[in-house]
Structure to design on (470 residues):
């Protein structure tokens, strides 16, 4: 079989656009995940049993089922389940929702671990000064926890970047989907899929290098 | 000022406090001594509800410390100093001192800083106001912690082994600050192994062991003529190993 390596160069601009979509999708999903994750981690650490239950069910379900299944549930099952007809660009919305909700469950656990890693004495000191639970969280615990969760959040970003390739199945035009289309037209899987893989690799390597720098900076200014 | 009646505390099945009765008067300095595991820290932590009481009654400044009470309201009036300082590491010394008055008492930033600087001066740390805790020695950190508690203008100060985590050469500077406080008439409950401090500053010494108050009285009596054999054996041990005292 003839392998047309030159196709990799011709396809590069199209795939690059796909990589941009992949980055947008990942950033959007992790942003949504940060909001959901903060709420769910606080709920899980709450003294109200009902809130803890809601958070536990949410986190267990989204971490305990495959992301691909979750994607199908959002994309195919949400419209009939909640009785709406699929809007324009539904694949975009469904992709963001599924990735963001999934990311939220993992980030909730990252935040929970970060909050619990802060010495109990910090809470006791804050409470002994008359601060409420919320004030102690906001002024004392969360500012210290933020630093500790940055490295695991970076890893979550990289994991999400790779997992976002799953949304190619619901015709979301990100990097892998564009590769698939080109392969369909040219019957050249070898150069295209290798190129797609290398583009993911470049993105994850660049991000992990940036993270390493950030971590080193944090370590330097670590006030503990 | 503080009334404690029949205080019991369990950790799971372990009974740590087995019925404590005591009354601490205004401006009194009460020193609690006893072997480790005797329940003295737990007793202190019950006084501002860092530990839940299993049974019994505590009344502070006329307010009963029960589940319906606004615990935050009591904690505002009761300052606490911890063995391990527990300064907030992401804030400067001054910020440590000024945060709670602002967000709990609603004091303006300017006023809080004025009070904060005054308190830091009082504990001898004017020049360290803008340092972070990691840049301070243990003794300096503990003095900031005392200033932080005082900034809330508490009616009572609780000290939970405030010098136990310090290098020996730093114990004196912290005790000096505490002596000043006592002299100014602050009501204080101090859990400590510093017998010199107990003798010099304490109005009353409470000896605790196995979760009960074994003996109490004015320091001269307790130290010179301990009546309870437990107290005798504890004092002979702790005094013979040469615990620093002035």
């Amino acid at each position: 079989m003839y392998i047309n390596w030159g196709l990799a160069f011709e396809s590069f601009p199209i795939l690059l656009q796909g990589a941009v979509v992949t980055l947008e999708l990942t950033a959007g999903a992790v942003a949504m995940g940060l909001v959901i994750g903060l709420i769910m981690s606080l709920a899980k650490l709450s003294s109200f049993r009902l809130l803890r239950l809601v958070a536990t069910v949410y986190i267990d379900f989204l971490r305990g089922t495959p992301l691909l299944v979750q994607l199908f549930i959002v994309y195919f099952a949400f419209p009939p389940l909640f009785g709406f007809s699929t809007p324009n660009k539904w694949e975009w919305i469904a992709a963001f929702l599924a990735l963001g909700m999934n990311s939220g469950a993992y980030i909730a656990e990252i935040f929970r671990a970060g909050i619990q890693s802060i010495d109990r004495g910090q809470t006791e000191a804050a409470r002994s000064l008359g601060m409420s639970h919320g004030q102690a969280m906001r002024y004392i615990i969360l500012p210290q926890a933020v630093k500790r969760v940055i490295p695991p959040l970076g890893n979550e970003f990289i994991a999400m970047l790779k997992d976002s390739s799953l949304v190619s199945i619901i015709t979301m035009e990100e990097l892998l989907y564009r590769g698939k289309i080109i392969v369909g037209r040219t019957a050249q899987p070898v150069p295209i899929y290798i190129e797609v893989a290398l583009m993911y690799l470049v993105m994850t390597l660049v991000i992990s290098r940036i993270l390493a720098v950030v971590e080193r900076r944090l370590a330097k200014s670590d006030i503990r | 000022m503080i009334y404690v009646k029949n205080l019991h505390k369990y950790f799971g099945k372990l009974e740590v406090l087995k019925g404590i009765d005591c009354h601490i008067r205004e401006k009194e300095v009460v020193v609690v001594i006893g072997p480790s595991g005797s329940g003295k820290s737990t007793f202190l932590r019950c006084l501002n509800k860092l530990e839940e009481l299993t049974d019994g009654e505590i009344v502070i400044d006329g307010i009963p410390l029960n589940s319906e009470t606004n615990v935050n309201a009591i904690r505002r009036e009761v300052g606490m100093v911890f063995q391990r300082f527990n300064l907030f590491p992401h804030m400067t010394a001054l910020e440590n001192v000024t945060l709670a008055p602002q967000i709990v008492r609603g004091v303006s930033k300017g006023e809080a800083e004025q009070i904060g600087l005054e308190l830091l001066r009082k504990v001898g740390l004017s020049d360290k106001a803008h340092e972070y805790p990691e840049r301070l020695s243990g003794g300096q950190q503990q003095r900031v912690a005392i200033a932080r508690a005082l900034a809330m203008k508490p009616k009572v100060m609780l000290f939970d082994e405030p010098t136990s985590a310090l290098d020996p050469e730093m114990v004196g500077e912290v005790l000096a600050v505490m002596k000043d406080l006592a002299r100014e008439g602050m009501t204080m409950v101090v859990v400590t192994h510093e017998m010199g401090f107990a003798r010099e500053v304490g109005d009353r010494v409470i000896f605790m062991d196995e979760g009960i108050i074994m003996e109490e009285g004015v320091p001269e009596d307790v130290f010179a003529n301990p009546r309870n054999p437990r107290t005798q054996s504890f004092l002979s041990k702790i005094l013979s190993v040469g615990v620093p005292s002035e």
Observations:
- The mean pLDDT of chain A is 94.
- Chain A is about 80% helix and 0% strand.
